[in-house]
Amino acid sequence: MNLLNLAFAAFAVAQLAIVIATQKHARQDGHAPATTIITVIALALVYDNGMVAVGTTVGVGDTLATLSIFRFVSHILLTPILLVAAGWLYAQHRGTKISVVGPMAAVVLVMFGTATELLELHLVPATDGGILRYTVGEGSSPFAAVATVIGVIIFGELLRRAGGPTAMLAGGVAMFVMAGVDPAIGFPFVGNLGEVILMATMLMTSREIARSTSSPGSPQLITA
Known about the structure:
The chain is mainly alpha-helical. It has helices spanning 3-28, 33-58, 62-78, 82-94, 101-118, 143-161, 167-185, 190-212; strands at 123-128, 131-136.
């Protein structure tokens, strides 16, 4: 393993630590949907980073290609659900019912990602900086992922304006900036570091809100 493989292994460990910390927090927060979503997505990112870390060891072939499919399926199907968690945290801080906007946006983005990426998924091997991983072929659009991060930033700003924690806003901005650095410098790890920061700040936000509210119970879904 070279240093970049070790970096991805470290990212996997960091995401696993977030999973463990989130579950510990969830026992205090009544296993609210936000903590469940953070846990599920962080677990998917453990797998994602782990597969990249061992890609060189496994080598090019059907085994690595097959194992890599879940990386992209999870990104397409799970990433937009962060909007539900962000909306839930905003509603929990304000002590109001959660708007349908976050869940509906997540559904639309999952459907968009499925139609534009998942149904036409074509993985090709790529070597960058000494690491081996399978990536999507040309023509794939990251729109759903970018829109999700922008949505998290919007909820983070709304939360800040409501006097809530600023961690989610900072994490969303960091993820947005760092995701754009990867293609610019051709060094494929900055975006994954951004994912660690984003998930950590989502957890930090959930913790702060739970501490600041006397009853960290679940908001209700409303349609307007």
